[in-house]
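Discussion board: Methods & Data

I've been asked by a reviewer to show the raw model output for two of the constructs in my manuscript, not just the figures. I'm not sure how much to include, so I'm pasting the format here to get opinions. Each protein appears as its amino acid sequence followed by a line of discrete structure tokens. Is this the kind of thing reviewers expect to see in a supplement, or should I convert it first? Here is construct A:
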Amino acid sequence: MTQKHCILIGAPVDCGKRVRGCLMGPDAYRTAGIAEAITALGHSVEDLGNLAPATVDVAPASNPKVYKLAENVGWTQTLMTAAQEAAPRGMPIFMGGDHALAAGTVAGMAAHAKSLGRPFFVLWLDAHSDIHTPDTTDSGNLHGTPVGYVTGRDGFDAYPPVPAPVDPANICMIGLRSVDDAEHAVLDDGDVMLVDMRMIDEQGISAPLQTFLDKVHAANGILHVSLDVDFLDPSVAPAVGTTVPGGATVREGHLVMEMLSDSGLVTSLDLVELNPFLDDRGQTANLMVDLTASLLGRRVFDRPTRSYK
């Protein structure tokens, strides 16, 4: 595998929802040995530390349920800039933090792809589609809105303008099993490639993923992967505030990452929604680090045995 320069970017975003704890995520990944796992595979690592949101003034949201709008906008601004600065130097790995961070990371990587004149694609590994807007969200939690933002939906007037809106036809969502009615209305009539858990049960996870990767390859595209802890089943990844039973198994998760590694298409990665406060002796943090290693070239025969004694 081609050696990569991996740039770790801590994004302790904890404002996208009301369950606290994701601000500890970046340091949990460091404690679980993410840098060591990457360097053991022959890649180089640069850790930029933990970023902070820009200070912004925004008008109150028209939806009174919206939670911490200004802080979410500030993080979007910070991470959009960080992505565009880091991407020309290597492979950014954004360690979250809740999924609200993807508004900035995806928008920034899309702008980077535009600067290269190449199509941009997103693989969204998540139980949720996160395609709400601040106007449509019932919970007011903005971690459910990043796909809505990057695809240019209305209702994000408080946010920075999206420099390069993502074509919904260039997005693949795998692992879906909790989608709101307002999101269904958008997705059912749209072009996003949807792979829910029933499709995975019927067809396996490799066939739809390979179809999407073939599309990225044919377009000479670059690929951003956004990996939410709740893509995985909570029995193997309990450290998330939005557990939905029936998620991907450990082997399905590793298969996805190994296929992504084989493709050579991935240019950036989000690791989101890790809440160490809810973890069991680092089980979820360790699994997410192991999945990152699989994405970067570790294979099944090379996987270490873990002991929690």
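Construct B, same format:
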Amino acid sequence: MSDRDTAHTPGDRTADTEAIDAAVSAAADAARDLTDDSAVWGVLYDHGLAWVDFPRGSGGLGVSASLRAYAHEKIGAAGLSQPDPRRNTIGFGMAAPTIAVYGTDEQKTFLRDIFTLERIFCQLFSEPGAGSDLAAVATRAVRDGDDWRVTGQKVWTSGAQNADIAILVARTDVDVPKHRGLTYFLIDMKQPGVETRGLRQITGESEFNEVFLDDAVVPDSRRLGDEGEGWRVANTTLNSERVSIGGGAPREGGMIGVVSDAWRRSTKHRNPVLRDELIGHWVDAEVQRTSGILLNQKLAAGRPGPEGSGAKVSFAQNAQALSDFDIRMRGVDGLRYDSWEDRRPSDYSMTGRNPVYRYLRAKGNSIEGGTTEIILNIIAERVLGLPGEHRTDKDVPFKEMPR
């Protein structure tokens, strides 16, 4: 990189696009003779083109987050292969933004592995007794010299069967209130003491899992943030997750794209009533898309905030309404399902398979990433500034809380 490429003020769009253009040109030269996709992705990371808004040295260029799409287009125009984030959803959408903020230099080496798909991540947050109330997690991490030993149970863990590393929230102090006794770790999923069991869903798939931790070891060097700071670190993850879920689809991306394409290709079940309904759904999807663009632009200068909760709620509502419309639009054909056999998918797809799958799978959209009810509370309290709900356990040490 030349001095001109590095000496600019983040937020200056002309300087930012010039920095991206220069990085793409340099990456194209460096990858000219490479035939392996993962090697090309490594070149993109090394040139700051993984997440262009991340700091230099962490897969980024320190430019505006609103230029991610611009960088993606430029990389594609240069003929360079790019990884599919859906193959490492938790890594791209949740782990990477959190590591970029709180990670040590050693921990930030995971960012390259995430981008090149060399390490697949999952998320060990929810528990049988702490789903909506994440701060009530009971999984314990006990200090043992330079290590921590973790024992407990997690549930609803997407893709745990394929994961190499998990982002984990565990309780390290029971003598303080629940929000203050948590610590955040990066734990090896392939080690002894970690058992993954599939949870069969209404779709027939076992995409989710329950994970049992029995004296599993985490080096202290894999602690993300300070001891007892887990709640603050986890909120960065959760806010990033909600933005990732609700704020990133292109025009006619996701379910509205599937439904619109089906409408254009078939005239069998068209009628004016369905047409009017589809137009309403299309407008809702455009509002969601443009609101997501605005949200990402607002977040470009800082960390994701609670505003992303609104995007996640609208995503869930729109996806469920569209999947319902999708079935009704197709008549009897929309009710056919291929198989209810238990399946362990290697990749996640909300819009794949068929209408019945999409309808059933969309029911989970109002649960994953935070239930709609909890997120409405977040919007009320943290965005609108309304009085919070009365909480009797706010200042009670965790060990004294009824379980």
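Answer (T.O., handling editor elsewhere):
This is acceptable in a supplement if you add a one-line summary per construct. For B, something like: Residues 1-10 have pLDDT under 50 and may be disordered.
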